[in-house]
Automatic annotation (TrEMBL):
Species, as recorded: Butyricicoccus pullicaecorum
NCBIfam families tied to this protein: Cof-subfamily, HAD-SF-IIB
SUPFAM superfamilies linked: HAD-like (SSF56784)
Name of the protein in its database record: Hydrolase
Record-linked InterPro entries: Cof, HAD-like_sf, HAD-SF_hydro_IIB, HAD_sf
CDD domains recorded: HAD_Pase (cd07516)
A GO cellular component entry from the record: cytosol
An annotated Gene Ontology molecular function: magnesium ion binding
Amino acid sequence: MKYDLIALDLDGTALNPHNTVSPAVREAVAWARSCGVHVVISTGRICSEAAEFAQMMGANDEMVTSGGATLSSVSKGGCTMRISIPWEPAVRAAAVVERVGMTSMIYAGEHLYITPYDEMFFSQYKTNEGFLSSKQVVPSVAEYIATHHLSVDKIFCRSREPFMLQMARRQIASIPGVRVMSSADDNIEIISPLADKGSALTMLCTHLGTTIDRCIAIGDSENDLEMLHAVGMPVAMGNANDEVKSIAKYITDTNANDGVAKAIYYLLGRER
C-alpha cells in the first residue's frame, strides 16, 4: 500500500519525554516529505503551540488541533475550521471544573483562557511561545464564557488526584452536548461530540485530495482512538495504553527511543 499522509500526535508520540523533537524524528519527517508523503500534526494542543512543534520537526502546513475540534494552518497562524461546544454545555462543564477545583485551560480559536491560579500552575512547565502568546488571564473562566457567550473548542483540565478527575468526568459526562476524553492519566479533555481527530483528519484528507485509508496515524492515548480507527494504518507507540495497542496494526518503539522515526522508516520501506 502506498501512503499519502502521516498524522502524528505530539505528546507521548512525536515529542520525547522532555517535550522536544529529537533529531531522529526531524530527519525521518524530512525523508518522508522528500518521498512525496504529507506529514501533519494531529494534537490536542491549540494551534499556536502545535505550529511551533510543526516548524521544529519540519511538518507540512496543515494541522489537526484541539483534539480534532479545529483544523489549523501554520502559515496562516490560526484555525481554518472549528467545531465548537454549544454555549450552554460549555458554561456548565467549565463550572464543574471550577467547582471540583482542577486547573484548566479554555481553548477558543487562537486564544487560551485561564485564571490567575491556573496561570501559576501551567507556567511552571509551559514556557513555549505558543502558550505565552495565546493565553488570556480572567478571574473565572466559567463566568467569562457565560458573560461573553464565548465559542469554546475545548476545555483541558489537569489534576494529580485521580478521584478529582473521576468525579469531574462523571459529572461532565452527564451534560448533553459535550464529550469527555483523556490524553494522559492526569487530565481530561472536553470537546463537542461532533469533534474528534478521526473526523478532522478525514476532512483534511479530502482537502488534500487523498483518502483516509491511504493514511498512517501514530498515537498513544485515548484521544487518538478515533483517528487510529479511521486510518488505513493505525500505529501505536511502545508507551501507548493497552486500548490503543489493541487496535493498532503496528506497534513501534517508545517516544523515548524515537518510535515515530522507526515507524516512518519501516512503513515507507526504508531501513534505518
